[in-house]
Write a structure and sequence with these properties.
Elements (H helix, E strand, L loop, with lengths): L4 H6 L2 H11 L3 E2 L1 E6 L5 E6 L2 E6 L2 E7 L7 H9 L1 E6 L5 H6 L10 H5 L3 E2 L8 E2 L4 E13 L4 E13 L19 E3 L3 E3 L22
Antiparallel strand pairs: 1-11, 2-3, 2-6, 4-5, 5-10, 6-9, 7-8, 9-10, 11-12
Length: 211
C-alpha cells in the first residue's frame, strides 16, 4: 500500500496523527520537568529528546507549536532550566497521564503521583522515582518555520544515576536501568539488546564487544 503526501494530508485527523507518529519507529520516552519562577512545577512526557553533542555535552527537545499554551515551553523560557527523566516500567502508566492537558496551576507531579526532587545546580524538578536523570540549562532555541515547532538545545549541567549502570567504557546500560521506549503516541515497549558492535572502520567488519 502506498500513501502519497496528498493521501496523508487527506486522512482523518486522529488517524493521520497516529499514522505519522508511528513512522519514525521506536523513540525515547522521557519526562521533562520544569518550574515557573513562582515555583509551580510541571511534568510532561516527551518522545522527541535527542543527543546533540558530547563536547560540550548537550541534548535537545522538540516542543510543539507555542501558538497555544505550552507550560513546559513557557517555564523554560522563564528561567532557562529543565530536566530529562527516563521512564521506567514501574511507572509508565503514570508517566503517560502527564500528557493530559492540566491547567497551568495544577502540577502533574501531584496529580500523577510523582515526587519532585531538586538540587543546588538545577532549579527545575527531577522525578525522584527515575533511575536516570539529566539536568540542563537552555543554550539555544530555534523556531522551525515549516510547522512552528520549537527546537530547544540544553547544555547538560549534571547527571544522576546508579554507578552500576555505567560500564568501563562509559556506556550506560539503559536496559539494566529499566528504561522503556515508545512507538507512536501510546505504545510502550521494553527492550532486549542483541549485542554491542565495535567502532566501524572502513573495509573492516565490526565485531561483537564483550559484555
Amino acid at each position: 500500500m502506498r500513501f502519497s503526501n496528498t493521501d496523508i494530508k487527506a486522512l482523518e485527523k486522529n488517524f493521520r496523527r497516529n499514522f505519522v507518529n508511528s513512522l519514525s519507529g521506536f523513540k525515547s520516552a522521557n519526562l521533562i520537568g520544569t518550574a515557573s519562577n513562582a515555583k509551580k512545577t510541571n511534568l510532561a512526557i516527551f518522545s522527541s529528546v535527542i543527543h546533540v553533542g558530547a563536547n560540550p555535552p548537550a541534548m535537545a527537545i522538540l516542543v510543539r507549536t507555542a501558538t497555544v499554551e505550552r507550560n513546559t515551553y513557557s517555564n523554560i523560557k522563564e528561567n532557562g532550566y529543565f530536566t530529562i527523566n527516563h521512564i521506567h516500567k514501574d511507572f509508565f502508566r503514570k508517566a503517560h497521564q502527564t500528557s493530559a492537558r492540566y491547567p497551568k496551576d495544577i502540577s502533574e507531579f501531584d496529580e500523577c503521583g510523582f515526587t519532585p526532587e531538586f538540587t543546588d545546580i538545577v532549579p527545575a524538578p527531577y522525578v525522584k522515582e527515575a533511575a536516570i536523570k539529566i539536568g540542563l540549562k537552555m543554550a539555544e532555541e530555534h523556531i522551525i518555520k515549516f510547522n512552528q515547532t520549537v527546537f530547544i538545545i540544553g547544555e547538560i549541567l549534571e547527571v544522576m544515576l546508579n554507578k552500576e549502570l555505567i560500564q568501563k567504557d562509559g556506556y550506560i546500560d539503559i536496559e539494566k536501568a529499566g528504561t522503556l521506549t515508545v512507538s507512536g503516541l501510546d505504545s510502550y515497549h521494553t527492550t532486549q539488546r542483541i549485542t554491542r558492535l565495535s567502532y566501524a572502520k572502513p573495509f573492516t567488519q565490526p565485531y561483537d564487544l564483550p559484555e
